Amino acid sequence: MSKIAKNIISNIGLQFWLVISQIVLVPLYIHFLGVEAFGLVGFYTSLTAVFFLLDFGFSATLQQELAKSNKDVISPNDRINLIRTLELTYLILAGLGIVLILLSKDFLTQNMILDSKLGAETILNCVVAIAFLLASRMLIGLYIGALNGLQQQFKLNLILIILEVIKFISIVLCLVFFWNHILAYFLINIIIGVATILLLNRIVWKQENPDRLKAHFQFQVIKNKLKFTLGVSLISIISVILTQADKFLLTRLVNLEEFGYYTLAFSIAAIPMKFVSSVSAAIYPRMVFDYSLGNEESLSKTYQKSCQLISFVIVPVCLALFFYTNPILSLWFKNELVVNKIEWLVKIFVLGFMLNGIMTMPYYLQLVYRWTSLSIIKNLVALIIFIPLLIYLVRNFGVIGASCIWLVLNGLYVIIEIPVMHSVLLPRIQFKWYLNCVAIPILVAGAFYYLGQFAIRSDVSFGIVEWILISLLILVSMFSINKLMSEQPLSFLNKLLRA
Predict the structure, then answer these.
(1) Average pLDDT estimate for 212-224
(2) Contact 456, 324 (CB under 8 A)
């Protein structure tokens, strides 16, 4: 089995566990803590994206540098000095982030405190815990970037799965038997976060510095990479504004309960992206390696296969969730009020995430070539257009209006960004990309599910027969898509497993 195959399988294993734990824990949160408390989890997720702006693109730079072929490495000292320099830099930035959140906690929670039943003290304590949790997540992100670049994802994922299982058990036992309070969720996450940092630190240094050479802080090792680093950082800043503006605006315009429903719908619709991140995390270092060797033919082939593999899985799954949202949510939550509140939000979000997943590997291709200006310009234009539109839609249509922005934004990326990108990078495959990654999977899966509605009514109670039919529809659509795609993703997977 090839290293890429092992990495993809281990990535999927980790993401599979995260999905299973989410399926179990989300209803548990709603039952024991209430929708308002889940709104605080959504608030933490939004702050995570903002907090990671302090990364300034350094983790992406570290991942790319460590993924290069050995001939591109000047010396082992340069590599370990880069890691040490970024470690110390991240500690300073994490501390700065904690201070900024603590200083602004009253402003951040002002509207939530006014409308919430949780109480001001609970919310403020949770924000303090969130500040320290975010700092730990930032350091974890650095080590994950390093291990991804070193293509040590199997070892990384094994550690992460074990720690996630421990966290899952701890949260369940705590909420059910000891302390059913939202603060318990954040405190357990902090403890697991610290343990993760210590373990990943040990693995990175054992892998990259087996001879125990002395590492030093040297600004010079990152100075020559600042252009790419700052480009990635600017992309991140604009992307965070685009993707998180709705969350922060909603915290000011709707109550915490409504925000909780919005967060819940967003989290559910994002589940298929777990597979996307599993594939992209394993494939990206290989693309960097091919590029560093000047092997464009291999790079192009890897890019096309990974794009088609992602579309082969994510499109049928997302469209199934779109067509059969109500029965799937009813089976999950067994709560008609929750289902009615989030059904259309999930439908809109899942289509947006489907398009976002399709665009993942094109973005990574740009990073491989260190072409950051396209994403910067694209996001700046989107920022100018969509922020005023977002404010209008939220004020007039509430959470539904905000969700539509996500769908339209990703739809325009697929329509506009791809022709621009492929006119410069791998121009001969543009039509092939649209045909195999967009047209074939959407038309085939959409046709199967549309016809399936005549046999499976979504407005009646679902039994075992209906669920079997839906499962068969998904499988048949996936096998049909595979046969029509040029790279046949199942054959690609089979070759990886046999290599």
Answers:
(1) 69
(2) yes
